[in-house]
Recover the amino acids of this structure.
């Protein structure tokens, strides 16, 4: 997919190229690039007028909904009240009727007074102020040329801002010095109640490395992050929140992190266009583009190699960065910090160790945060442990699954070389987030993602997922999608025959797509029941108040214990539809306790190939939340399918609970007797089977009271057998020593459920048959175990 060069959305106007402080860590005056010396002290009105026109033209051409214009320097307040007011008015007027504009100013704060506060209010200018912490920390670097402290005047400016225009006080910017105590710095900044704090790593390159041991800056930030969490995140901290966002597969909010393409351009005081200011630390002339506002439109600047190079995401990073497990969050760090003479910017950040320390620390804390965020309430936990669980409990499970799916996708996307697909997914996430969530909720997307991260599956399917997301969101795009064994797979939508093609160019639109495979072009309207003879859509089973996908085409559906069926004929699908509707009616009528959870959480049924011996088979996959696989019961009775659905959905629920809560020690290596299996089971297998058989027992408990004659007697036998064996298995779990405290609580509720049923009466004949069947299973299991040991 050939994406156009991205438009600029952030414009930094250097309205002053001189400053009233002499900060020794300033990238403008103290680093390699000294171009400020040849520029006018202030931007002229003529230059500002042309710059405003260029910004408006660019916004109109690209139909931008909003832009940010940052008035910067040097020290921008040096331009004075009248000129600053004119500049703000000119910019606002130029963008009026074109797009929303946010005017911002970044200042050292020493000149702020009541009159400037009135000006900020009149023009709606948001104000950010540089401050490095308490007095000692700030005065290490931010001083006047004669060495005098700037601290008191900055604090006074902040006080005036908070008093006269508090809604325009946008935050504080702090450049890190590891000789300052991090908690003292944090507390000093927090006391000023900023809406946001930006912690900035001091500009450095591999030619001029930062002071301290490797990861010293990361360790400094870790201490503040932990304190910030303990304080309940009282203000936004852009670096921390960008890490948290990217770990959750959202976009970064700072150019120093993440893989998002740069959308910023600088306009200097003389009207020349430059790249990001931070490049001044690399070498003299590093940010220059050779373009200026008088002679060049912004679209021309957007084609500059330095600009486009910073829009390539993963491709623009060094080989070392591309292989890094945290690259999707780090993004290689700030572009300027990668510079080394001889290899230019094709290096990891000089702060690589620091970023790795911070990100991995936040990752470890995020796991705890995610568990806390998606933890089950005591009511939901108890409902699920009892074997049931209502809609609210299922919604909580799904919320946890959604976080997992996004984390997995971020892992695959971060390591993928398919940037076109990743960019399209990012676009859908930005424009239609609920749509992307629904696409990711397709059960076999997680199955695929887990396989990718284990190195078993390639990432080509990412493009197919992105195409589906765009189609569902109604976003027009063109994307190359791999063809597998002559088939184009679009998960949750269907599959298209594409014999002889290695890939297909898929053009997406609302409710339709066009596939180019070789010389063939096929347009598929998803609303048409007969879109094309070789297009096999995912069909749906519809019953009273419920609809699920009967997915017999997904590329990754064949992950169950039994082989998946091939495409069902129309007649086979019709039989499924009939039995499903009858089974759902039976569940609603006779087993209503399970109906709400099934309707809320079961989204997909995968038909399995019939078993050669004719026995009913069904299965779930641990990484396919929301899906159940089953062969249509041979007797095609509604009760048989109802039992399969209820039974297997227990595994779906418990798997999601285990993704949120640790119920047992994963290091437990024991094998246990399971009364429903011929082979010994690991602990999770026994826990899963026991939990499923709570529902099996309950199913037969109800059926013995409803069914008549032989069917009623059979149900009584099944009830008597499974209540006894499930109770036995629960005691095995309880006595295993493998349960955590949470697991002990879960099994305790399971025990309470089964004990209520133990006292219910069944006939002597049913009890006898149940005991005989249980004894026969145990004898066969022990014989097999002895045979295993002797071999």
């Amino acid at each position: 997919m050939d994406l156009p060069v991205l438009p600029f959305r952030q414009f930094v106007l250097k309205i002053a190229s001189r400053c009233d402080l002499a900060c020794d860590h300033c990238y403008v005056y103290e680093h390699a690039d000294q171009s400020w010396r040849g520029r006018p002290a202030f931007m002229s009105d003529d230059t500002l007028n042309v710059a405003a026109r260029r910004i408006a033209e660019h916004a109109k051409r690209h139909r931008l909904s909003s832009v940010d214009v940052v008035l910067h320097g040097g020290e921008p307040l040096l331009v004075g009240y009248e000129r600053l007011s004119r500049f703000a008015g000119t910019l606002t007027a130029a963008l009026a009727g074109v797009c929303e504009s946010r005017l911002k100013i970044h200042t050292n704060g020493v000149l702020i007074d009541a009159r400037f506060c009135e000006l900020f209010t009149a023009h709606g200018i948001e104000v950010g102020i540089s401050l490095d912490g308490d007095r000692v920390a700030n005065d290490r670097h931010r001083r006047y040329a004669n060495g005098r402290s700037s601290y008191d005047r900055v604090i006074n400016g902040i006080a005036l801002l908070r008093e006269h225009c508090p809604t325009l006080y946008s935050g504080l910017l702090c450049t890190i010095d590891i000789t300052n105590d991090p908690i003292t710095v944090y507390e000093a900044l927090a006391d000023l109640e900023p809406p946001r704090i930006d912690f900035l790593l001091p500009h450095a390159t591999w030619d001029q490395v930062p002071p301290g041991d490797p990861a010293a800056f990361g360790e400094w930030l870790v201490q503040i992050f932990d304190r910030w969490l303990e304080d309940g995140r009282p203000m936004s901290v852009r670096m921390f929140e960008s890490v948290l966002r990217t770990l959750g597969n959202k976009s970064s909010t700072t150019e120093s992190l993440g893989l998002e393409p740069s959308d910023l351009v600088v306009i200097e005081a003389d009207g020349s266009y430059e790249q990001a200011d931070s490049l001044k630390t690399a070498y003299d002339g590093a940010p220059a583009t050779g373009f200026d506002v008088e002679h060049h439109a912004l679209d021309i600047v957007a084609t500059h190699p330095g600009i486009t190079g910073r829009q390539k995401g993963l491709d623009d990073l060094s080989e070392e960065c591309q292989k890094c497990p945290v690259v999707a969050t780090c993004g290689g760090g700030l572009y300027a910090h990668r510079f080394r003479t001889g290899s230019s910017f094709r290096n990891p950040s000089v702060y690589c160790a620091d970023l790795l320390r911070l990100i991995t620390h936040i990752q470890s804390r995020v796991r705890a945060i995610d568990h806390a965020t998606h933890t089950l309430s005591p009511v939901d936990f108890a409902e699920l442990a009892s074997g049931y669980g209502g809609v609210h409990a299922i919604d909580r499970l799904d919320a946890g699954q959604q976080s997992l799916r996004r984390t997995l996708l971020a892992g695959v996307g971060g390591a993928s070389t398919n940037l076109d697909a990743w960019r399209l997914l990012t676009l859908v996430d930005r424009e239609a987030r609920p749509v992307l969530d629904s696409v990711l909720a397709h059960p076999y997307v997680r199955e695929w993602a887990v396989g990718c991260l284990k190195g078993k599956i390639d990432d080509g399917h990412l493009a197919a997922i992105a195409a589906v997301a765009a189609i569902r969101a109604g976003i027009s795009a063109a994307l190359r999608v791999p063809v597998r064994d002559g088939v184009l797979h679009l998960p949750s939508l269907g599959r298209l025959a594409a014999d002889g093609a290695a890939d297909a160019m898929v053009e997406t639109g609302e409710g339709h797509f066009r596939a180019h495979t070789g010389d063939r072009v096929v347009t598929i309207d998803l609303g048409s029941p007969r879109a094309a003879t070789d297009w096999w859509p995912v069909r749906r089973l519809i019953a009273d108040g419920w609809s699920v996908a009967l997915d017999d085409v997904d590329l990754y559906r064949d992950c169950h214990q039994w082989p998946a069926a091939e495409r069902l004929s129309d007649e086979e699908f019709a039989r499924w539809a009939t039995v499903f509707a009858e089974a759902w009616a039976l569940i609603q009528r006779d087993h209503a306790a399970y109906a709400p959870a099934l309707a809320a959480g079961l989204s997909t049924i995968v038909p399995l190939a019939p078993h050669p011996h004719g026995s009913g088979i069904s299965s779930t996959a641990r990484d396919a939340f929301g899906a159940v696989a089953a062969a249509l019961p041979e007797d095609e009775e509604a009760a048989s399918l109802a039992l399969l659905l209820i039974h297997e959905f227990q595994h779906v629920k418990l798997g999601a609970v285990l993704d949120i809560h640790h119920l047992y020690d994963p290091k437990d290596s024991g094998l246990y007797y399971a009364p429903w299996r011929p082979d010994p089971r690991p602990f999770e297998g026994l826990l899963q089977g026991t939990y499923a058989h709570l529902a099996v027992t309950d199913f037969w408990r109800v059926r013995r009271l409803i069914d008549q004659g032989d069917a009623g007697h059979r149900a009584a036998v099944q009830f008597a057998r499974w209540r006894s064996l499930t109770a036995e298995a629960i005691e095995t779990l309880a006595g295993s020593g493998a349960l955590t405290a949470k697991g002990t609580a879960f099994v305790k509720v399971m025990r309470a459920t089964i004990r209520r049923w133990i006292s219910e009466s069944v006939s002597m004949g049913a009890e006898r048959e149940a005991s005989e069947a249980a004894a026969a299973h145990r004898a066969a299991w022990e014989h097999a175990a002895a045979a295993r040991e002797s071999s």
